[in-house]
Description:
Largest sheet: 7 strands, parallel
Distance between the termini: 51 Å
Helix content: 25-40%
Shape: globular
Number of strands: 18
Radius of gyration: 20 Å
Strand order of the largest sheet: 3-2-1-4-5-6-17
Strand content: 25-35%
CATH topology of the domain at 146-339: Dihydrodipicolinate Reductase, domain 2
CATH architecture of the domain at 146-339: 2-Layer Sandwich
Number of helices: 14
Amino acid sequence: MPRVLIIGAGGVGNVVAHKCAQVPEVFEKITLASRTVAKCEAIAQRIEEKLGREIAVAAVDADDRAQTAALIRKTDPNLVLNVALPYQDLSIMDACLETGVDYLDTANYEPPHVAKFEYHWQWAYQERYRKAGLTALLGSGFDPGVTNVFCAYAAKHLFDEIHTVDIVDCNAGDHGHPFATNFNPEINIREVTQRGKYWEGQWREIDAMSVSRDFDFPGVGSKKMYLLYHEELESLVKHFAPKGLKRIRFWMTFGQEYLTHLRVLQNVGMTRIDPVEFQGRSIVPIQFLKALLPDPGSLGKGYHGKTSIGCLIEGTKGKKKVRKLIYNICDHAECYAETGAQAVSYTTGVPAMIGAKMLLEERWRGPGVFNMEQFDPDPFMADLNRYGLPWQIEDRDRGIE
């Protein structure tokens, strides 16, 4: 009986639990755990009412390796799906090593006191996971995750050699709030306020939000997007630069109202990640801000509009120069009707379930630590179409330069 332990009961955890529950032939027993059991119980109740399936719930502090290991032993899963905070990746990886269980996450480790996205902390587990005969699958969300698989699919089927990749991410939805983030506010704000970075033969840094382009997103139209750094760039450079990659960048759209709020919050110090003294107590401003902002898991109701995310890839096929866009369009209202979540949570949660399915079905296996592009993309791409994230390919004569 395949058993999974899902750690994290936010918006993504809700989607992962729903999607796993929809595939009982693969996910026969599901346990959902979080520091706040009430969140797990609410998700479990919705799943029972909607799908007629019961899932178990449990309490866990994922910062505590020993406590996490004890829960793993108690629930005896074949796989741990980590959709908690990126700060907790290493403690959960340690607990999986201790208990001999495979591991999956959706975002790379980030140290709490430094806004820095790097895989080296998790790649350092390679030899330990290899010796233990365990698989750790990193970044099984959309970006990172699906975008990595899009690149692998393009390399296998569409190109002889890939020269440039531009990952383009647009959320054209409206949640009705003057300022809110679509996933954990602390992680989101740290991500978009750090210096931008891209790779063009070497890593190049730019000031945050200093480079922008207009781009015609399928299903959405022309939107202004900004060059950011995102973690999948690091692994894609590692695996594609030796095969001819010359440049890779990541772009994301932001509305003007969001940018105005963000600029004001930065100017008054509310996005700081270092502790400050307030009334005799030490607080971290961004953590206080997180407590004031809407819970991303609560944004689904009334959210309308679409996301449009993909990879604009240029290279050669035969002797011909080729440029193609591989993308998915996702509707916020449709995601809410199915899972009670908005599309940003949905587009992360569905690939987490599919990545878990790949491991449990042994389509993707191997001892060690892996990124998504290292496995055969075909079964994953087929399941994207099957489980709610259909993709398309478009020839693009013009695009980002």
